[in-house]
Amino acid sequence: MYKTVKVSELRDLTVRILTAAGETEENALLVFENLLEDEYMGKSSHGFYRIPAIARYSRSRKERTDLNISINDNVISVDGCQNLSFVAVKKACDSIVELAKTKSVIIAGVHNYVGETTGALGYYTRFLARSGLISMMFCRASASVAPYGGMEPHIGTNPISFAIPAADSPVVCDVSTAGISYGKLAILAKSGEQAPENVILNKDGYPTTDPLDMIERGGTQLPLAGHKGYALGIASEILAGLVVGAQSGNGEGIPEGTDGTLIIVFKPDLFIGAETFTLNMDAFLTEIKNAKPAPGSSGVRIPGQYDTEEYEAKKASGEITLLTEVYNDMLACL
Hey, what domains does the chain have and what are their CATH numbers? Predict the structure, then answer.
């Protein structure tokens, strides 16, 4: 069952829940805008179903202080100081945009934040692209994915995102290195649907399509495309974990840490002039859009184009459709 809710109601509800959990109104609104964009783009897996868990993290975290942001030349280090992931990573992106006024290449690392998720990474890379910057972003998450050939979780779903400025809308790639995102499994479970084949194992190591086998019964997720996604997941685990001062794996032999994020950003005119870059991008994307469609295809889209089209269409309505269970779970937080 589904319920259609006005965006204004969702905003007020989110602010009430998160401020009651100890967040400032500013931080609550920042979380709301992140989740709202994901819902607009059809990514309910990263949308408002996350609110109860975010509120729980807000209530249960260790003592929190203001973010500690240090800048050394073109390197930004953000200690989240137990603030929400949404807040720490967005503030890192804001710092990147400011530093880009004087630097052409910037690397930012974020650690020591709390929250079930950072939200879809495309939210941040799209923001950076709209600020005229090319970005690559890596995030490590709590272990829920088995290494290739294994049956127990040792790495996270560890999404990777890239975004590049373009004339109409940015080119955006945002993918989990697992065969399916954890959030998608949660939504499938809430709606009583089965997972695709070959993306999760049950606790005994056998393939299953019941999302509850993974979420509630000790199963595990599998890497995207076998050994290929596994390699990407390992890279993200190291880059956004160990490298930035966060945890990797299950933390065995490693000091207690948290999830982490690594962001690499540079200006499009780093190697060629800005005008040349713009002209070449326009020509290339036009070629791709005009590619001959395969039989049965409605045509070729640029990565991120579908998200933008969904966003514009749903934003105009001023409403969001949620699973009734998701809406009720939010109400239960009050």
Answer: 1-60+303-334 (1.10.1530.10), 67-176+222-267 (3.30.1370.60), 180-216 (3.30.60.50), 274-302 (no CATH)
Cα 112 to Cα 256: distance, rounded to the nearest angstrom: 10
Q: Whole-prediction pTM value?
A: 0.95
Q: What's the confidence (pLDDT) of residue 61?
A: 74
Give the residue-averaged pLDDT of 174-203: 95
pLDDT tens by residue, 247-283: 888 877 665 567 899 999 999 999 999 999 999 999 9
Q: CB-based burial of residue 275 (10 Å sphere; 0-12 exposed, 13-18 middle, 19+ buried)? A: exposed
What would the mean pLDDT of 163-179 be, rounded to a whole number? 95
Question: At what angle are helices 25-40 and 305-317 packed, to 10 degrees?
Answer: 110
Q: Measure the CA–CA gap between 145 and 126, rounded to whole angstroms.
A: 26
Q: Annotate 230-258 with DSSP letters as a single string.
A: HHHHHHHHIIIIITTT---TT-TTS-S--
